[in-house]
Design a protein that fits this description.
Layout lengths: L30 E4 L6 E4 L32 E15 L4 E10 L10 E10 L5 E4 L2 E2 L3 H4 L4 E2 L7 E9 L3 E9 L8 E10 L15 E12 L23 E6 L21 E6 L25 E13 L2 E4 L10 E2 L13 H12 L8 H5 L19 E12 L4 E12 L2 H13 L11 H10 L5 H10 L1 H21 L13 E6 L4 E5 L9 E10 L8 E3 L4 E3 L6 E6 L5 E4 L8 E9 L35 E3 L3 E2 L3 H4 L8 E4 L5 E7 L4 E7 L5 E4 L12 E9 L2 E10 L1
Parallel strand pairs: 5-8, 6-20, 29-35
Antiparallel strand pairs: 1-2, 3-4, 3-12, 5-9, 6-7, 9-10, 10-11, 11-19, 12-18, 13-14, 14-15, 15-16, 15-19, 17-18, 20-21, 21-26, 22-25, 22-27, 23-24, 28-30, 30-33, 31-32, 31-34, 34-35
Helix pairs in contact: 4-6
């Protein structure tokens, strides 16, 4: 319980003690990432991840909640909001009574000096991320995505963020976030909120006042925009406004525990699940059936088949009764994302605060969710019955309360946010079968919830769309399974236990390019864990998210692993180095290592997360220097744009290689008429130098005949090559 000292105990409405001078202090919005499992997300020290809050860039409207994080641009998060409200509130900062007081972090507003003030943010790790090197240079995204402050081997999770925020409603929020690398628990994060009436009104508690908080309400907003991959700033095959969630569908289950509906799902013990989930709905500007986000202009693969959402794991009944209240959340009403109420928020605006509290934070449950109202219609054309418009799409809103908090009282709320859906392989199989109408009606096994989704949200169209959408909607079964898995893990943590742990990764993972081989070596820490059984070493050609499979459109099935694209070597315990003798000159290669056990630690084989060791810098095979000037070659010659992906692959479509060159030389590239295009200083001692057809003024070269002049200590040489664009 928060206690004032004897001097400050005399504070009243008319006498406010200020400890020193109240100074507006500027806090930076510190950000930390959870990035060790298959769900990556950033978290703000201000307690909420607001719209474009990390970069400030409009192109990052979708930023965070990346799933599956192994692949690029899988962001599903557009904005979040955290509002705290109370009734009959006295504000000592302005010496004023408020019938309704509301403070805000997001979805657009953030005031970290006067409203939600960061106090502390740290991250604990069961172990730190490995040091990963390629040719002596740091080569892991975790260098900047995994900022571990403390190592604690006793953690129940791989990572834990500890975030303390003081709010101007006299409540301290402690937010604790857990992330896991266990293969069956890596697609959700558990988020625990503890709200304490500590009577402080700034980060340093220079202004304090004791009062009982009446009608204390916690209100969370989730604006999802499903998968960045096909959106305007990236793949650009889905309608523009989908990038800010204009066509997002939002459903809620378990709103009424005493009167469950047909789509409510139960925990294994019969307890009703309280959850919300979202997916990409129909958009009027799409010229094709856009459920699942198929790349209709391209290969057809599904680029937005994710289902994302939040499940309530626990909500205190009261400050004195810490049992879970299954009637919380008390509010599950959706909110239009560009509603004026979501911007221009002002904690001292009485009219706006009254509207926020009474019409949003405590409004209860709608008769139908937004998804139920939309049905098989276009989600982007949905009009909120309360506002009559929907310019930016629809967000989920959930409220907990009202609570009465005496000075020192706390309430605890725990949720898990997760993502699920078809795996990457099935996104390609289903999408390409859909595009090529080669599906043969092979539909997935149905569940009651899956049937509910098809009956209520699938348009009666041709069999081709029926096939695709039936597979897409298996994603809702997957997100429900994710919620159940999170609940099981939470219950385990509540009992003081933790999940079986995968082997830890090595502390050092090192990749060295060579003249006739690429050498990979690592330290042996994983071998000290129980049941350790070996390593899987992966090599990916072209880029770090190279697809680990190939799909045969004609046969409608996955082909065996193409080892020229992705290679897996299984290595025995005690083997801590490997020489890759199969790499080819001119190509980019990336590597990662997974340590695995023998299955005795759990019902399945557990492996360390690939994200610990995956390299973000290419390794390359470089041959020794040539023996004479006549050995020098330019490859390919001619360079033809029609074959660019077949030459050095998708990671280097414009690459030319100068081969068998001396260990040290200057390469000058001229046009046919003698204009200098670029100068390259070759100094690494090998016989290879790559050039990506970029001039010194950062322009791609045009078609024509070019001359490469090799200036060497003991002479010079000239080679001509042709470019066809």
């Amino acid at each position: 319980m928060f206690l004032l000292d004897s001097t400050s105990a005399m504070i009243s409405k008319n006498k406010i003690l200020i400890f020193g001078l109240f100074v507006s202090t500027s806090f930076s919005q510190e950000v930390k990432w959870m990035s060790v499992g298959d769900l990556h997300n950033w978290y703000s020290a201000a307690g909420c991840e607001i719209e474009t809050g990390r970069t400030g860039q409009v192109s990052d409207q979708q930023d965070g909640l990346r799933y599956p994080a192994f692949y690029r641009v899988q962001d599903n998060q557009a904005a979040k909001g955290l509002w705290l409200g109370a009734t009959n509130f006295y504000d000592p900062v302005v010496n004023k009574d408020y019938e309704y007081k509301v403070i805000h972090a997001g979805p657009r507003h953030l005031d970290i000096e006067n409203e939600t003030m960061p106090v502390d943010m740290t991250m604990d790790g069961k172990y730190d991320h490995p040091n990963v090197f390629v040719d002596g240079d740091p080569a892991t995204n975790l260098q900047y995505l995994d900022d571990v402050d403390n190592v604690d081997p006793s953690l129940p999770s791989d990572r834990r963020i500890n975030n303390i925020v003081q709010t101007s409603i006299g409540v301290q929020m402690k937010r604790t976030i857990y992330a896991f690398s266990h293969p069956e628990h890596q697609n959700y994060h558990i988020q625990e909120y503890v709200f304490t009436n500590n009577g402080c009104f700034d980060a340093d508690c220079n202004t304090s006042y004791e009062q009982t908080l009446e009608g204390f309400q916690v209100y969370l907003q989730y604006r999802y925009a499903i998968s960045r991959e096909g959106m305007v700033y990236d793949g650009n095959w889905l309608p523009q406004s989908a990038a800010w969630g204009h066509n997002t569908m939002n459903d809620v289950i378990g709103e009424h525990p005493d009167a469950p509906s047909i789509n409510d799902q139960f925990y294994d013990n019969g307890e009703i699940m309280r959850a919300l989930f979202s997916w990409q709905g129909y958009h009027s500007d799409a010229s094709f059936d856009n459920l699942g986000g198929p790349n209709a202009p391209g290969d057809g693969h599904l680029g937005a088949a994710q289902f994302v959402g939040v499940v309530t794991l626990h909500a205190d009944t009261s400050p004195t009764d810490n049992t879970d209240n299954i009637n919380q959340p008390s509010t599950t009403w959706f909110i239009t994302s560009d509603d004026p109420t979501t911007s221009g928020n002002d904690q001292y605006n009485e009219v706006k605060s009254t509207n926020e509290y009474t019409n949003y934070m405590t409004v209860g449950h709608p008769e139908e969710s937004q998804a139920e109202i939309v049905g098989t219609g276009n989600a982007n054309q949905f009009n909120d019955p309360r506002t009559g418009s929907n310019p930016g799409g629809t967000s989920q809103g959930i409220g907990f309360g009202p609570y009465t908090l005496a000075p020192g009282d706390s309430i605890r709320i725990v949720v898990a946010e997760g993502a699920a859906g078809l795996n990457r392989e099935m996104c390609y199989v289903v999408g390409q079968n859909w595009k090529n109408e080669a599906h043969n009606d092979n539909l997935p096994e149905s569940s009651s919830l899956h049937a509910h989704m098809m009956n209520n949200y699938h348009r009666t169209t041709n069999d081709n769309n029926l096939y695709k959408n039936s597979w897409v909607f298996t994603g809702v079964d997957s997100i429900i399974k994710t919620f159940k898995t999170a609940k099981q893990n939470f219950d385990l943590m509540e009992s003081g236990q933790s999940l079986p742990q995968p082997p830890q990764p090595p502390s050092i993972f090192n990749v060295t390019s060579g003249g006739d081989r690429i050498i990979i070596d690592w330290t042996n820490e994983p071998e000290s864990g129980p049941g350790f059984a070996g390593y899987n070493l992966y090599r990916l050609k072209f880029k770090p998210d190279t697809t680990l499979f190939a799909y045969n459109v004609n046969q409608g099935e996955l082909d065996p692993l193409d080892e020229t694209i992705a290679t897996i070597w299984e290595l025995a315990p005690g083997q801590n180095t490997y020489e890759d003798l199969t790499a080819e000159r001119g190509f980019d290669y990336y590597y990662f290592l997974e340590a695995f056990d023998n299955g005795t630690n759990d019902d399945i084989v557990l492996n360390s997360s690939k994200f610990y060791t995956i390299t973000n810098k290419a390794a390359a095979l470089k041959r020794p220097p040539g023996e004479s000037f006549k050995d020098i070659r330019v490859v390919p010659n001619p360079f033809h744009i029609s074959a660019r992906d077949l030459q050095y692959g998708v990671s280097a479509p414009d690459r030319l290689m100068f081969l068998n060159i001396p260990p040290v030389c200057t390469i000058r590239i001229f046009t046919e008429r003698g204009d200098l295009v670029d100068t390259i200083e070759h100094t690494d001692g090998s016989g290879d130098e790559a050039w990506n057809s970029i001039t010194s003024s950062r322009q791609i070269i045009v078609s024509g005949l070019y001359i490469a002049h090799f200036d060497m200590p003991d002479g010079d040489a000239i080679r001509k090559f042709t470019v066809v664009r």
